[in-house]
Write a sequence for this structure.
């Protein structure tokens, strides 16, 4: 049985904040109490569903019948569930020592907007929203299958964050699902606001620098992943979903690849891998060739590079580090700046500074070309988090190339490959060639032997 | 399709033989039975490989230590594991030192040999301590990139103006000379890829199919014959024995007038940095897995200790030795490997029989 004193005490505590409303309605015969957070509640709904029927009521039993018949309205039987409900957007109705909760939320962050981070040419243009119900709606509307399961989870200390774990129960790998759910339960410390944050908390290794779960904002990618047997996690309040397990290729493929004809799709993927190679290796190649092995290229080419480096007093790695530092700062600055200033920053930094640095004899003109190639090629990686990770990879390679030339460059690249190949994302090998096999996570169709 | 992983160690051993002084030794005996040695090696090598694979596939997902565990006394299995492990560790070490000499001579003349050894050792130690599956995925990715370049270099060599078929015809007059055991053992190195199964079999959790086994003798024959004959064709029957870095010098005589990189030797060197690193990682991985299986606790620390000791020993030996000694070590190694392989295959066939 519900304890009235306890509820009284709780309500008094709640009323300390200004946006907690306490209303007493009377219609001559009866009076009821209404409690809610005015900032969370759609007052129009309350007016229509509660106060209007109430005004024509003549007895408490009649009022109780009305509320019983109302959708999303139920009697509160445990005082402990009262506060969480109030915080979720319920309002509390009380009369005659009975308590009802009525769901009337005001949601303003569920407006579907265009995808900003993963734009697409031919794919559906809209992205997830900040509201999980709207997201669930977007996903279930696309994935019209009763196999799609949704599990609600609460994680973290107070205030708890709400997660929704989604999977197709026919194709999901059961062991992976259990492992993931266990990991979610194990999370304790933090207050989770973003998908990337959750990913860090879920990751197996502490010092990880390649993301092992995919963060996306595109419903079509989510649905495609679900059909592959992957698990999708939505974080309430974040317009990004987490997908696990993920393999390296997932980060390198855009959804557009599937909407184009076969050869165009293949060509785009190859283009991306070439860009990946360039953005990782080009600065290191420059150093290795300039400082250690100028005899590799044709004589004319070697001479023209040497000519453009004539005014540069420093050895090549100083030049490379100087230019790369500038471009990293430029990228970092233009992400956080307001849009209008951002374009100014890029113009000043990119055009004027580059030109001036070359004329001042700080860097060679070939280096300017290399820096811009590295920066542009970096943005070709479709998933942002991978693009950020790739930005870091070139620096160890630069160290290797500075010390050991071409030998060091290839050794460094070898190390990077070894690192990738040794990674596992929830039991799946993260980086390996696949041919003749079905999608790696589609366990039911897996061929062995 | 997953069966493709079975072939990568074979290809790797075939590729690495130009670094491992196989062509140098074969060319040395070109008038004393190298031809027949190659022929015998193709027959014996693939037969041994076939027998060994047929036995190993009865134990899917098990390496040599696991197979021995219940069937042999602990002492005997430890001795076998240790000596096989040492054999592979030495193989990796020889290739590492041999390649750092090549790197010193052709890529980085200004860097002291100690530093080059250090670079290769650090990278190989890191790679060797990864998981067996990782080594397999790694070899696939690297070989996919490398094989087209290797085929291109071979094609380029055959196209070369200096390539003289007459020089090769001269050697065919000595085709029926009886080879020494040494030469045979050297030539058989090309087929030794199957030996990696002693550890890599842990990765093959399914029954290895032998339907495409014919690929092994065919590619082995192509590799052996071309690594033996192309240097003779390019340098001439007599002059060929003057070269220590036989294949590097052979490839260095090729030129691509319109290529982005003009001298073909740089493609070769770049490819062989990766091939050598891959071979060293794989052999040291096999070595450390076998040696650490002697100590029952399979902790990661053991592997790091073993790899560390191996790395320091290799570095030390690399500083002291020279090419001449290294070739002698390689020759001895081929001989020992030949005998150990025969014994091992015999043992495994017996174990396989008894299981049936």
């Amino acid at each position: 049985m519900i304890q009235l004193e306890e509820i009284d005490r709780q309500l008094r505590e709640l009323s300390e904040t200004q946006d907690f409303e306490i209303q007493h309605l009377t219609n001559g015969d009866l009076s009821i109490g209404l409690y809610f957070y005015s900032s969370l509640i759609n007052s129009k709904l309350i007016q229509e569903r509660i106060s209007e029927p109430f005004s024509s009521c003549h007895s408490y039993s009649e009022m109780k019948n009305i509320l019983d018949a109302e959708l999303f309205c139920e009697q509160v039987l445990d005082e402990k569930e009262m506060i969480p409900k109030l915080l979720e957007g319920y309002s509390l109705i009380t009369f005659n020592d009975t308590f009802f909760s009525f769901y009337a939320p005001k949601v303003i962050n569920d407006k579907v907007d265009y995808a900003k981070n993963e734009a697409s040419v031919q794919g559906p243009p809209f992205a997830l929203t900040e509201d999980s119900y709207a997201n669930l709606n977007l996903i279930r509307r696309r994935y019209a299958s009763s196999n799609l399961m949704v599990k609600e989870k609460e994680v973290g200390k107070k205030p708890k964050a709400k997660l929704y774990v989604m999977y197709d129960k026919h194709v999901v790998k059961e062991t992976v699902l259990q492992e993931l759910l266990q990991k979610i339960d194990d999370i304790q410390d933090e207050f989770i606001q973003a998908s990337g944050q959750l990913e860090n908390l879920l990751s197996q290794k502490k010092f990880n620098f390649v993301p092992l779960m995919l963060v996306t904002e595109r419903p079509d990618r989510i649905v495609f992943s679900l059909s592959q047997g992957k698990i999708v996690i939505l974080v309430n309040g974040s317009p990004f979903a987490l997908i696990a397990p993920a393999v390296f290729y997932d980060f390198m493929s855009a959804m557009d690849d599937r909407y184009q004809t076969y050869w165009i799709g293949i060509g785009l993927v190859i283009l991306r891998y070439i860009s990946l190679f360039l953005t990782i290796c080009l600065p290191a190649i420059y150093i290795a060739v300039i400082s250690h092995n100028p005899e590799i290229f044709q004589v004319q080419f070697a001479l023209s590079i040497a000519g453009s480096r004539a005014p540069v007093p420093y050895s090549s790695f100083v030049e490379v580090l100087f230019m790369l530092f500038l471009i990293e700062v430029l990228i970092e600055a233009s992400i956080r700046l307001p849009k209008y200033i951002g374009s100014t920053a890029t113009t000043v930094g990119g055009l004027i500074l580059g030109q001036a640095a070359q004329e001042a004899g700080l860097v060679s003109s070939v280096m300017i070309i290399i820096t811009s190639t590295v920066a542009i090629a970096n943005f070709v990686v479709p998933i942002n988090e991978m693009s950020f990770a790739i930005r870091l990879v070139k620096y160890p390679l630069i160290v290797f190339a500075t010390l050991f030339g071409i030998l060091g460059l290839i050794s460094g690249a070898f190390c990077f490959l070894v690192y990738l190949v040794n990674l596992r994302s929830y039991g799946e090998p993260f980086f390996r060639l696949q041919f003749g096999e079905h999608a790696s996570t589609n366990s039911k169709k897996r061929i062995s032997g | 399709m997953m069966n493709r992983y079975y072939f990568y160690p074979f290809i790797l051993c075939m590729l690495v033989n130009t670094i491992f002084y196989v062509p140098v030794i074969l060319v040395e005996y070109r008038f004393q039975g190298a031809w027949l040695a190659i022929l015998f090696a193709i027959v014996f090598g693939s037969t041994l490989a076939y027998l060994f694979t047929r036995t190993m596939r009865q134990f899917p997902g098990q390496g040599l230590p696991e197979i021995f565990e219940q069937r042999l006394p602990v002492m005997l299995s430890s001795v076998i594991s240790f000596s096989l492990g040492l054999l592979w560790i030495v193989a990796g070490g020889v290739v590492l030192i041999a390649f750092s000499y090549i790197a010193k001579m052709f890529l980085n003349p200004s860097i002291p040999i100690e530093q080059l050894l250090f670079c290769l050792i650090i990278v190989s130690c890191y790679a060797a301590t990864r998981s067996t599956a990782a080594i397999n995925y790694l070899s696939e990715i690297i070989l996919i990139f490398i094989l087209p370049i290797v085929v291109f270099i071979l094609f380029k060599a055959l196209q070369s103006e200096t390539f003289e078929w007459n020089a090769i015809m001269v050697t065919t007059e000595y085709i029926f000379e009886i080879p020494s055991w040494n030469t045979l053992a050297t030539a058989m190195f090309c087929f030794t890829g199957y030996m990696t199964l002693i550890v890599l079999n842990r990765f093959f959790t399914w029954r290895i199919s032998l339907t495409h086994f014919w690929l092994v003798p065919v590619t082995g024959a192509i590799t052996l014959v071309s690594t033996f004959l192309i240097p003779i064709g390019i340098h001439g029957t007599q002059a060929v024995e003057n070269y220590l870095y036989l294949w590097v010098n052979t490839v260095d005589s090729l030129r691509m007038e319109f290529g982005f990189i003009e001298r073909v030797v740089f493609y070769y060197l770049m490819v062989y940095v990766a091939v050598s690193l891959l071979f060293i990682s794989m052999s040291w991985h096999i070595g450390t897995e076998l040696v650490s299986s002697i100590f029952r606790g399979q902790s990661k620390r053991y592997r790091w200790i073993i790899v560390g000791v191996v790395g320091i020993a290799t570095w030390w030996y690399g500083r002291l030795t020279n090419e001449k000694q290294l070739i002698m070590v390689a020759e001895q190694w081929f001989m020992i490997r030949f005998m150990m392989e025969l014994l091992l295959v015999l043992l495994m066939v017996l174990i396989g029989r008894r299981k049936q």
